[in-house]
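User: I'll paste a sequence; please echo it back and then give the predicted structure.

Assistant: Echoing your sequence first, then the prediction.
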Amino acid sequence: MDRFKQMIADRHEYAKAWKKKTGGLVVGYCPNYMPEELAYAAGMLPIRIMAEQKPDVVSAKWIYASCYVAKNMTNMLLNGEYDYMDAFVHVEDCQWTFNVFEVASNNFPSLLTHYLFTPDYTEGPIAKDVFRSELNVLKGKFEAWTGKAVTEEALDKAIEIYNTNRRLLRQIYEMRRFYQTKILGSEMMNLMLANQVTDKAEMNKILEDFIVELDARAPYDDRLRLMLVGSETFNADLEELVESLGANVVVDELDNGSSNIWNDVVLHKDRLMALSLRYMGRPHSAMKDSNWRRRPQHIFELSEDYMVDGVLVVKQLVCQAHGSDNYAVWKLLRERNIPFHFFERDTTLPLDETRVRIESFLSMLRPGVTRIRGWHQPLGI
């Protein structure tokens, strides 16, 4: 249960070892619209810059009124925890993480930096062409940084590795649809986070072995099935708390969770356009779901597919994207009579308060649940 959590804890040492072994560059990025295949084809190791609660007397001097994610990232960068990172790509999505990018650019002149514009109106008539042109600029940057060309063959190999990675992760997500699941939400979240800081070719082998292990596991007892919706998370504290109360998070719709691996790159003779179509067509974050509001419907379809009994809508304090988007999510959940509980979280998860709130929510669900084992017996089915 702790192996993936340990991989997250050891991510800095892993990246340093990877650099020493390969002589390649490590490129950090945030948020999750980063076309990792492009960096991987250039021989770089793309890693998601993660937030982690640590003593912080630094970030307040540089950024104001940002969410804890941005503050923690700033704190870790300025304290040298990412000193092995050679490059930083900010993918336009969240205004708070752009503040982190600016602080890093101003304080580390030797750091290779790039701002990747990503259209907010992803369904726009020229959005895919615009993003394709932005990817071409980024490709040129990678080639200049590494001193070697990003060939079509290298891109094809990277796309194959990343498509395989997403397929294996979706295979594990499919196992969570089983009523008696063999994996808990906390383990899955730690797996998803570990996947974002590990070489994908290496991770694919880990995932293949893990799927074999899951097949041999005995299933967990019946539990209330919850779905997690909202801002990105960088630990599994909430899932562990839910499990301690006898429930289980069986699916999420987080930007760095399921939404990040839900579709593949479809091969095309124009590889950059293939990447553009994939990233502009993925389940969108609250910031990018700005026109047709496809996100609420996607949430509803996941809730049906995974037979959830209730939804936890969790927003990071000061998260402007989800603060402006939640009304549409709440509206759909109410219209479809799906029970949900909304709360905000800050730097750390207030365990006692959150425990009481989730416990109360679960007690409201139990009287109406019909999918718990044995429901069919009184009906003689």
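The mean pLDDT is 92. Residues 212 and 268 are 32 Å apart (CA to CA).
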